[in-house]
Amino acid sequence: MTEITADSTIYDLLKAKPEATEALFKFGMGCVGCAIARGETIRQAAEAHGIPLPELVKALGIKEA
After folding, report:
1. pLDDT digits (tens, 9 = 90+) for 13-63
2. CA dist 48 → 36, 44, 57 (Å)
């Protein structure tokens, strides 16, 4: 399995770490049911939602790059 980083898609994150759903919701991200999640990276989602990437990756327990 490939390591999940900020450049992985939301879809890949949720497949590898279903528990990440809780962290996403804490940041106000409804990525679980979002059609964009299949192609949008964690980095792109953080930017779109105005969330500091370092905070998000820390909460998700992944690396930034």
Report:
1. 999 999 999 999 999 887 777 777 788 999 999 999 999 999 999 999 999
2. 12, 6, 15
Is residue 49 within 8 A of residue 39, CB to CB? The reply is no
Residue type, 59: A
pLDDT confidence of 10, banded at 50, 70, 90? very high
Task: Look at residue 1 and tell me whether its pLDDT is greater than 80.
Answer: no
Q: CA torsion angle for 10, 19, 54, 49 (degrees, to 10)? A: 50
Handedness of CA 54, 55, 58, 62 (dihedral sign): negative
Q: Residue 54 is inside which H or E element, if any?
A: helix 53-60
Calpha distance 19→13 (Å, rounded): 10
SS3 57: helix
